[in-house]
Amino acid sequence: MMLNDIIQSLLKDRDLMESFLQGKVQFAGISETESKALFDVMGSNIAAENVYYGVSNNWR
């Protein structure tokens, strides 16, 4: 599973997102660094639609 696919899955499925943020779900095929970065971004206050495109309107 590509990182892009993982992000899409998390954005579409709130239960999966919550399980991931609680540390109950791990994804095969991504490094520990990628997993930590994904956790940091998905757990942040940045709007989900901005996470996917890598842009945040909150940054000024």
Automatic annotation (TrEMBL):
Keywords: Competence, Lipoprotein, Pheromone, Prenylation, Secreted. Pfam families: ComX. It comes from the Bacteria. GO terms for molecular function: pheromone activity. GO terms for biological process: establishment of competence for transformation. It is found in: Secreted. The keyword Lipoprotein applies. One of its GO terms (cellular component) is extracellular region. Interacts directly with the sensor histidine kinase ComP and stimulates its activity. This is ComX pheromone. It comes from Paenibacillus agilis.
